[in-house]
Structure formats: structure tokens, C-alpha cells
Amino acid sequence: MKQFEFTTLKLFLAVADGGSLTTAADKCNIAIAALSKRISDLEASAGTRFFERRARGMSLTPAGRALLQHAREIIYGVERMQSDLLLYSRGIHGLLRIAATASAVAEFLPQELRSFSDAHPEVAIDLTEGTSQKVVEAVLDGRADLGIFLEPVAGNGLVTFPYRRDELCVVVPRGHHLTAQARVRFAETLVYGHIGTETQSSLSQKLMAEGGVDYRVRIRVGSVDAACRMVHAGLGICIAPRLIVENYRDCFSIALVGLDEPWAARQMLVGARSKQGLSGAARAFLRRCVGAGAAQPQRHSPGPIGRAAAAEVSCAAKDLSHEAKHKGPPPSYDPVFPHEDPETTHE
């Protein structure tokens, strides 16, 4: 078997992602005939077919799916190396790549990133936003070092730690009938028109699954901020993370009502493909995230989805309490990287 060329692997990845030679050729600025020959030569070299040629495009064979995973690792690894070296040439020592959900970006990450940047000003940060599923995919593909997402994402394949907890609430106009109760069931809200967010978000998927045909979205918007503005205007109610919408209570004429459902309690996780492959910057930030989650006050019962996570958080919280009291590392284990300096960021 001949050695695979890096350029050929990039072309293979473009065809796999685009689903056709035409799309990949346009993206890579190469003639279709030349691209087709590259793929055919790649298959001949490996002694197996990577694509099924169909009238409407090309789909991966089992061998192609196996190569796809390795190709992504190689390509993103080389691109990460190039990015790191470019940063070093500019006097920046390290790059931290994070993928996170919109709720994590809006609620917790700004203060986490601020404290990390203050401690490690030499590290550049690349933050991307997406749904929980997209965040997990970014980490698995090697496009992000760490991902912050909501539990559960089935079969995510990552090493995960508890990060932060939040709860969903009902956002209504001030003076709304639902404000007469401290907490309401989700079914009680279905008689009112809802303001929904993007359909691919984990929250929208959950609400549609729980409400079924009775869940009526009057207006769909792209963010919690926009949803609160719609509620303020009297156009409906919405379900949203409490820690986000609390920031809007003084700006808009809205009120928050507790949501009396077991799934209203949400556990965020921070995950990586493996602890061993993380850069020094990613290791330091992961440790900081786990510590922040452990120190977060418990605002509600974690419920079935969070009991195991809460137990680990509790253990980490005891370690942090000991460290704060004695101004040194606790004698118990580090829940993330045992026996390592917690502030080390070098490779």
C-alpha cells in the first residue's frame, strides 16, 4: 500500500462532506476529472472502495467511514499544529479551542474565560457555539479540545466531568395568570402560545417531545434574548434557562415561574476525547471548569440525570474547600489530573 498524501486526504474529506464530486471540486477549486482520478487512485492504493457511486452523489462504504475518522484526525491535527506554530511566531504560547452550547456561552463561560485569561494571558482562545450534539461532534472530530454541553447526549464517546447546573423556568409577561403559582407543570403552559427558539436546539427538541401536538409555537426566534423581547411585547410565553433570563428581568416586563418537571433540572458537562491527548492549556481550563462546577451552590435537586454527576461534584467541592482553607493542594485526589500542577499550561 502506498503512503497516503495529505492533499489527497483533504480531497477525500471534501467529497465525504459534500456528498458529490461536483460539490467537492467547487470547494477545492479542482477539476472534476482530476478529483475523480485522485479518489480512484486512493482506492486502488488501499485495495478497497471508499465510496458507493450513485446517481445522486457518493456515499461512504464501511471502509470509507473508517478512513473518514482517521483522515479528520490527521487533517485537524496538522491544522492545529500550523495554528499553534503561527501563534508562537506572534508571541502567543498555546491555543485553547472550546465548543459550547449557547446557554453555556450566555450563562457561565464569560467569567470562566476571563479568569482563565487573567491567569494565562499567553494562551489564545477559539470559541465556537452550537447545539449539544454539534459540540460533541466538534470534539470527536478534533475541531475542539473541550466541549461544554447538556446531559444527556446519547453515545457521545467522550470523557466527561460535571460542569454547571441550571434549571428551566417559564417566562411570562408581568401580571400573567401563571404568576399566581410558584411552580407550574409544563402541561399547564400548553394552553398559551409559546415563543420557541431554533428547532435544532436541545431545548426545542425536548419541548416538542414533551408537548407533542399540543405544543404550539406562535413565533420562532433565534435566541433567548429575542424570545424574552417577544414575551415582553405580549406575544406569548417561553421556556428558558433561569440563569439567562434572570438577566432580563430588569430590562423587560417579564416574570419567571418555576417549571415543576423532573427534566427542568439540567446538568452541563465538560468533555474531551481523552485526557491524555489534551494540550497544557486545555488541561488547565478543564481543571478550572470542574472546580467551578464543584463550587456552584446547589439550587435544586439534581434528579435522576444528575445524581452520579452530583456525587463527583461533591467530592471535588470538598477538595476545593480544603484548598481554600489551607492555601495549598488537598491531600485527596485531583478529580481531573491526579498529581499534576493545576496551573501548568506548557506542553
UniProtKB/TrEMBL annotation:
Belongs to the LysR transcriptional regulatory family. One of its GO terms (molecular function) is DNA binding. This is DNA-binding transcriptional LysR family regulator. SUPFAM superfamilies: Periplasmic binding protein-like II, Winged helix' DNA-binding domain. Residues 319-347 are annotated as: Disordered. The keyword Nucleotide-binding does not apply. CDD domains: PBP2_LTTR_like_1. InterPro entries: HTH-type_LysR_regulators, LysR_HTH_N, LysR_subst-bd, WH-like_DNA-bd_sf, WH_DNA-bd_sf. It comes from Variovorax paradoxus. Residues 4-61 form the HTH lysR-type domain. One of its GO terms (cellular component) is cytosol. Gene3D superfamilies: 3.40.190.290, Winged helix-like DNA-binding domain superfamily/Winged helix DNA-binding domain. Keywords: DNA-binding, Transcription, Transcription regulation. Residues 337-347 have a biased composition (Basic and acidic residues).
